[in-house]
Design brief:
Layout (H helix, E strand, L loop, with lengths): L2 H25 L22 H4 L4 E6 L2 E5 L2 H10 L4 E7 L1 H7 L1 H8 L2 E10 H4 L4 E2 L8 E7 L8 E8 L4 E8 H10 L9 E8 L2 E6 L3 E3 L2 E7 L2 H8 L7 E5 L2 E5 L4 E5 L4 E5 L11 H14 L7 E7 L4 E8 L2 E4 L6 E6 L4 E7 L1 E6 L8 E3 L2 H9 L11 E10 L6 E12 L2 E4 L10
Parallel strand pairs: 3-5, 19-24
Antiparallel strand pairs: 1-2, 1-4, 2-9, 3-8, 4-6, 6-7, 7-8, 9-10, 11-23, 12-22, 12-25, 13-14, 14-15, 15-16, 16-21, 17-18, 18-19, 18-20, 20-21, 24-25, 25-26
Helix pairs in contact: 4-5
């Protein structure tokens, strides 16, 4: 065979090999393992645990006939941090004693100090905040911790976990040093804090209200936006199958079953998964932990969010913004994260997708002088068709509105709010007889 003929054959083989390899590259489809996309959007510094989102709302100190209250954010954090030094043991259900004595009478007779929370807290989950010297503790929830602050040399003291909703009382023993420390740091100087008055709602419920008119500042905040893709990857099983649509001024993402709506005007999202039946979790501990984990999965926290409402019956959890230790409210939900759970998956998820970035200077606004607690009660009773005994709460907070001068700004204005029928409503003072 001639040399030239051999070169032609080799060249022809190389051409065929090149064509074959090119075809293989173009048509190759690798088998990809499906991964949890949400992991790529977790930011370690943005994840929170139970102690980060469940905090005391306020502390009430009774001194004789006077009542003083703390709600300063730094003090609440310090008190909760000190819980780790509270060695708890010997849990006992003594609810029958409260029933025999009368619920409010029992509380007043057993304590001069109340640490109050926003809603019923499952102790099974919150016990990690304390130093619990028992491997097994009873299953219970609470919204109040009461005890007697005293400069005592006793080695042990009694504290009580109270559920005002269920009318249950769990008594436990704590090391006496914890109570003495609390006395020295807070109770001894109780009159340095604002004075409160008692409003008796009914035989088993009372609310504490500021005694005097209070000047409060209005705040303006610049906001930053979260990445909508983070929500898409966290809420859809297969984000690659999600299609994007526009309906009016709302941007929508759907996979044919689930729907994520993005309202750019209000800077809010609303997710619905109608395939999920509302069977939900069997315990409030699971419900709360799953709710925290969901927000962790897409780094969706503003550091100011705290647990506000927890309902196992409705499988519903609400986290609310708190500023300067006070709750923030908005008529369309711009200040809260609301979750409703189905059978192990999120059923509905509504929240803002912005976060408070930093306060910015605005036109100098004079302090707003808020009415006193007595004036608030009078205004409450002037509301038409209102049942005073059905009020659930009454307190000062901030009303959030979008700034008309800054598209990336919100304004927080102090106001009185009352909770009635499960809803927080701004309290009107100007018009008597106004409809709710």
């Amino acid at each position: 065979m001639s040399f030239e003929r051999m070169k032609s054959i080799v060249l022809l083989i190389l051409v065929f090999m090149s064509a074959y390899l090119t075809w293989q590259i173009w048509t190759y489809q690798p088998t990809l393992k499906k991964t949890d996309q949400s992991e790529y959007f977790k930011v370690a510094s943005d994840t929170k645990n139970i102690a980060d989102v469940v905090k005391p709302k306020n502390v009430l100190l009774r001194v004789g006939e006077q009542r003083f209250q703390m709600n300063d954010e730094e003090k609440m954090n310090n008190i909760q941090s000190a819980f780790w030094n509270w060695s708890l043991y010997s849990f006992e259900d003594i609810s029958h004693q409260a029933s025999e004595m009368g619920f409010l009478t029992f509380i007043h007779s057993k304590a001069n100090t109340e640490i109050n929370f926003t809603d019923q807290i499952p102790f099974k989950l919150y016990k990690s905040v304390f130093n619990v010297e028992m491997s097994e503790v009873p299953e219970f929830s609470f919204d109040k911790i009461i005890f007697t602050s005293a400069n005592s040399n006793m080695e042990e003291a009694k504290i009580y976990f109270i559920s005002t909703e269920n009318k249950t009382v769990i008594q436990t023993i704590v090391n006496g040093e914890s109570i003495r420390t609390f006395y020295e740091m807070y109770y001894k100087n109780a009159n340095e804090y604002p004075e409160y008055i008692t409003y008796q709602v009914n035989k088993t419920k009372e609310i504490y209200l500021l005694k005097d008119r209070t000047p409060m500042k209005q705040y303006s905040y610049q906001v930053g936006d979260m990445n909508i893709n983070n929500f898409k990857y966290a809420l859809f099983t297969d984000p690659t199958s999600v299609r994007q649509e526009y309906v009016s001024e709302v941007e929508e993402f759907t996979d044919g079953t689930r729907l994520l709506s993005v309202d750019r005007n209000l800077s809010m999202i609303n997710f619905i998964n109608p395939s999920q039946k509302k069977n939900g979790f069997s315990s409030t501990s699971e419900l709360l932990q799953q709710s925290i984990d969901l927000v962790n999965d897409h780094a969706g926290w503003d550091k100011r969010f705290r647990l506000a409402e927890l309902s196992q019956g409705a499988q519903r959890v609400v986290f609310r913004l708190f500023v300067n230790g006070l709750p923030v409210f908005n008529e369309v939900g711009m200040a809260e994260i609301e979750q409703v759970w189905g059978n192990g998956e999120i059923y509905q998820y509504q929240r803002p997708y912005f976060y408070l970035d930093f306060p910015y200077p605005s036109e100098e606004e004079p302090d707003k002088l808020l009415p006193s607690g007595e004036e608030a009660v009078t205004a409450l009773k002037n509301i038409r068709n209102f049942n005073p005994e059905a009020i659930e709460d009454l307190e000062i907070g901030y009303r959030m509105t979008k700034s008309t001068l800054n598209s990336k700004g919100v304004i927080l204005e102090p106001a009185w709010y009352y909770r009635y029928g499960g809803t927080w409503i701004i309290l009107p003072f100007e018009q008597k007889g106004a409809d709710r």
